[in-house]
Amino acid sequence: MTDVEIGRAKRGRVAYSFDDVSLVPSRRTRDPKLVSLAWKIDAYTFEHPVIAAPMDSVVSPQSAATFGAAGGLAVLNLEGVWTRYAEPAGLLAEIAKLSPKDATSRLQQIYAEPIKPELIAQRIAEMREAGYTVAGSLSPQRTAKFAKQAIDAGVDIFVIRGTTVSAEHVSDGDSALNLKEFIYELDVPVIVGGCATYTAALHLMRTGAAGVLVGFGGGAAHTTRNVLGVRVPMASAVADVAAARRDYLDESGGRYVSVIADGSMGSSGDVAKAVALGADAVLVGSPFARATDAPGQGRHWGLEATHSDLPRGELVELGTVGTLTEILNGPSHVADGTMNIVGALRRAMATCGYSDLKEFQRCEVVVNP
What we know:
The chain is built from 15 helices and 18 strands. By secondary structure, the protein is α/β, with parallel strands linked by helices. It has one domain: TIM Barrel (Alpha-Beta Barrel), CATH 3.20.20.
């Protein structure tokens, strides 16, 4: 990123969002049928690299099974309504009818209910019964308290997800979560993030994580930029973290860490750009919140919107466009990039002339004027 002078006392780097860049086709094109979207992390292989984000508006034990059947991975929020209430369906229906002015206070009330360890075990058991890879997410603040319940219940992939995650996080109780020690002691692969810079990503990779989340998650439902002033445009963030992956590969003698873009991907074109800029996979929320069979019924919110003291998100009304399967694998009935995300990624790779995800990461991009 170019260093520019903001004023006499401060310099900054110019950074780019997904909207600022476009893909450039190579000298050849391919038949989409010859394109492979297979993605692997640790011992788990998936038909495509699109992951459903751990947000209550997107992932339930039931929708996770739908996603697994479609060849992908869904991550359940282990701090959401599914682990606070035995029967959350009524609350989800209520949230779907909230007015914007009442939404924040009511979400705070709903999420004030304590997390119940027995429900963590129950939800993971429900997901295991479906026969697909089980992934669950906790924030850094609650990882030390509830991770054991998730691991003992049989989660396959464990995700530590926050707005910004460092290699050592200090919780509200002043007890340190040392990620390197924590990950070393686990028998399951860990995905951790978010981060948005080369240095932060490199430190997270050194903890032993199998994957690193890039970004702050939940772009459509986040207000972090307005509340905290924190934001790094995603195109530059993904490219920076991809550089950290390359350097860590050399530093570690060949250990590969997956880079997973998290947030600011509202359309299939954004997903394609994220991979071309260096992401191995993408964590997507808002497009799946538009599914008729999503828990949020066309509404979308993240855990940040429920914070008791300083909410950094909001409930947004997106509406619905089709089923989860249609949004993921088509057929599409709209021309705005909100359906058939996997098909669009396949066609983008074919149009640009690349046969698999790693090749596509070498795709030329241009900065839009």
